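Posted in: Structural Biology > Protein-Ligand Complexes

Title: Requesting predicted complex, adenosine-5'-triphosphate in pocket

I'd be grateful if someone could produce the 3D structure tokens for the following input. Sequence and ligand are given below.
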Amino acid sequence: MERKLIDGKLENTDSTSELIKQSADEISHLAIDIGGSLIKIVYFSTNSKCSTNDEAPTLPKERQEVPNGDLNHHILSGRLHFVKFETSKIEDCINFLSSKKLQQCGAQCHHSHTVDKIKIKATGGGAFKFADLFKEKLGITLDKVEEMESLVAGANFLLKAVNHEAYTYIGGRKEYMQIDQNDLYPYLLVNIGSGVSMIKVDGDEKFQRVSGTSVGGGTFWGLGKLLTKCKSFDELLELSHEGNNRVIDMLVGDIYGGMDYAKIGLASTAIASSFGKPVSENRELEDYKPEDIARSLLRMISNNIGQIAYLNALRFGLKRIILGGFFIRDHAYTMDTISVAVDFWSKGEAKAMFLRHEGFLGALGAFMNYKDGNADLMPLQLVEQTPKSSSCIVDRIHNSTRVHENESGAIDCRLRVSSSFKIYDEVKRC
Ligand SMILES: Nc1ncnc2c1ncn2[C@@H]1O[C@H](COP(=O)(O)OP(=O)(O)OP(=O)(O)O)[C@@H](O)[C@H]1O
Ligand SMILES: CC(C)(CO)[C@@H](O)C(=O)NCCC(=O)O
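-- Reply #1 --
Done. Output follows.
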């Protein structure tokens, strides 16, 4: 039985090995974001194995010509891929990287000087924490890119360059938006990872982290794990679908004898106190259903983030709140709760918007950083979304509780590469 790479994990499968196919790709550049919970990788490959109508784009003639007669640059056409791993299973990530050409070759060249030259852009706390491990196991030096800077660069890139990247989620429906580039700034970027960062973005490299909260994705997963005994994040999310938060949350009606508190605009069904019901009930944890706990927990954390985001938007007069991070996970109830919170508190003035490549902002931003310094690499222009990506959109619309993660959302693009920029080429030669 073969093993297949799904969502960054190797799983058994009878079909052709995705991993082997991926290993055949020519990876020219790769960036990594090592967070508290997840490792995200973005890599550009020039030789993706695709189905018939899913091929890497052919460049129109004029785009193949070197801009400004600059003979030191050439253009690569290919695809940006997105993969993630759990940080606690960093070995899987190391094995994945080992399976790629750069690493196979790196291993062969263990005693040559070339190994020292492998440098990849890396962001997130793990770029510091695991720097020695990458050096020791893979011979790779992590070239660190500041985390907030990466998040902002990734978000700006997606918002400007990728069609239908951003969407609102209202009443169970997604509405894709194309934001006018001239009207993008300022906005509030809310990245919901293990913890939450809130960044006021004013321009391309102009931003300020204005707030944050430690009650984020790590809280949902950590607390949820303890309270429900779920074995995975997805299991916990799944469980929450079947739950009823009213069994755990104390509602306004519970306090007001079934009545609304109309004077201050609170319906009887509004939550007065998250997780407040057990206070007045003589019941133990085991007496509550795990699905109800999961539902309340998800609601509490999403609502809280929505409210803090709104308050920060209000603080700086921002109308647009863009949310990223893997906590969102394209999950209907999460997005609905955040959207409703923003809408409720702002009285419809501010909008919560989500991103299709939600969890990859940091990794994408680190990838964009290759252009810095030597100005060697830059995404030129995105070609149309691949059918694969389009079907990903459709999947999301029809099955909005779950994203098809592995490799979905791959983006076709072109890169301008300086001939002096050959970190992996050097390795390949050996
Ligand atoms: N397979 C998964 N395993 C663990 N957490 C997951 C998974 N899928 C989604 N999540 C959620 O995503 C969160 C992590 O999101 P993300 O990868 O954006 O942040 P991070 O970079 O790990 O965290 P930080 O930026 O705070 O260091 C987790 O806390 C959890 O809520
Ligand atoms: C510490 C980081 C930036 C690491 O990604 C993130 O987890 C976070 O923003 N936490 C919230 C910390 C706070 O502002 O209270």
